[in-house]
Amino acid sequence: MGMTMSEKILARHAGLDAVQAGQLVICDLDLVMANDVTGPPSIKEFEKIGRPVFDANKIALIPDHFQPAKDIKSADLAKIMRDFARKNKIKYYFEQGRVGIEHVILPEFGIVAPGMLIIGADSHTCTYGAVNAFSTGVGTTDLAVGLATGKAWFKVPEAINVHLTGEKPSNICGKDVILTLIGKIGVDGALYKALEFTGEGVCELSMTDRLTISNMAIEAGAKAGVFPFDERTKFYVANRAKKPFAPVTADDDAKYCATVEINLSELKPVVALPHLPENVKPVDELGEIKINQVVIGSCTNGRLEDLGIAAGILRGRKVHPDVRCIIIPGSQEIYKEAVHCHWIDIFIDAGCVVSCPTCGPCLGGYMGILSAGERCVSTTNRNFRGRMGHVDSEVYLASPFVAAASAVLGKISTPEEVL
Amino acid sequence: MKIEGKVWRYGDNIDTDVIIPARYLNTFDPAELAKHCMVDIDETFAANVKAGDIMVGGKNFGCGSSREHAPVAIKASGIPVVIAASFARIFYRNGINIGLPLLEIGDDVEKISADDVLKIDTSTGTIENVTTGDIFHAHPLPGFVQEIANAGGLINYIKSKN
After folding, report:
1. Which CATH architecture has domain A5-239+253-264?
2. How many CB atoms are located within 10 Å of the residue A37 CB?
3. Is the N or C terminus of chain B more exposed, i.e. has fewer CB atoms within 10 Å?
4. For the domain bounded by B2-161, which CATH number is listed?
5. Distances in Å between the alpha carbon of B85 and those of A338, A363, B130?
6. Which of residues 85-124 of B touch A (CB under 8 A)?
7. Tens digit of pLDDT for each residue in B119-135?
8. Between chains, do B93 and A139 touch, taking CB under 8 Å as contact?
9. At the top level of CATH, which class does the domain A268-417 belong to?
């Protein structure tokens, strides 16, 4: 019987010729990753096991959540991870000034590549499905065992075939695709399952679009969101991948538990209303919703293409007087490139805050926390109650097109209302 | 393990941001996390929860972030078991891994209300609602995942294999 991409990667890493959905397997891991929130408790659990790290060259420790340290306790967390990284000679530890948001820099630096199996103590680890890897979020105990053994157990997931067709309109990006999908299937629509993207619509999507889409697979409950390997993937990873890699392709007779059709040509700019990513509505059906803040950044939409979209809208315009607009490049490379492109000039001239790379406000850490009753349009991934600050604040998830347009007009807007 | 306790009842899609908001994640001390558990949807929980009380949620309990601080905060609050219609997968793994039994019972969860008293045998997955007289059976854990649960969590399980 044919296999999905997820089944093929799990089979390969379990040392088996074939696996089937539902099967329990123990797999060898290509990369084990944690951040400054999840790394320190993982290290504490790891030390209980009493073994050395399995392979210092296959571990990434990324201080991105509360760093540069937002307070003394966060500085202590960073120190625990830094000391551990030095002591164990961890290859992929990045200090402030060299670090970026974990799910932005690992693909950008080619540390993740097609066919790899990755666990990360961060739910958005599913991002790397965009480069044809199987990667999934775990907690600190799984991560600790991964650090010690290089292995993890998996229940091979059933896969939902997300079949993409049609041409993508110019005001639509990956964020609209994934929000539309979550709106259709719900926040538990892919619980315990993998999303696998197929169809001729895949080639319409840039790598940035794909990274955004895979990133939010978890917001439908999915274990992973895997894209096929095509010419765009090949081009993206060619000069990046640190090691030889082996892509996977789904068999023609692969078995999917369901199929969801998305015609890209029919998509409209959408937002997810508070307080769940499934509360998705087209922007043009919203009426007037005034806002106080815009955040453009995060592991979902903090890439160069995202900043370029925002710069295109903010060029020669001003952020609305009642709005704070916070721009957060996902990595130092992206920041530097945005400087070269004079996009940072555009942002500052428009009246935006520009921050160093950090997860910051996305999870209500710092750098843009909301007060009671405030509303934010954000390119981040979650709009749960209290996610970005006060329990009575609201987050509307949107693309960089919608976020930048909303920053200019002071209300949730489509790019067409500005351009 | 046999447990008898009073129910704290919550709804669908209880996310890890409300179980333990990120503003408290600059520590991973269980007792400190327990002080803020559920605060954004239930300010009374942390002050009034008693050891042995039981938490019951709807579908997709524990969705969102992978933070293991969430099941740790629940466990450190004195809750020995969580029951839900379904669990988000990372939370589910985390619960098993830290030795917090999670019982999945589908739509039967609708027959449990706040302040009901439940009698639970986690080894068999049998749940008796003492208040209403209903009896439910949780879905069993597959294969060696049951062994991880029996060992009291993944670290104990791995150490037993050392």
Report:
1. 2-Layer Sandwich (3.30)
2. 29
3. C
4. 3.20.19.10
5. 47, 27, 19
6. 86, 88-90, 93-94, 97-98
7. 999 888 999 999 999 99
8. yes
9. alpha beta
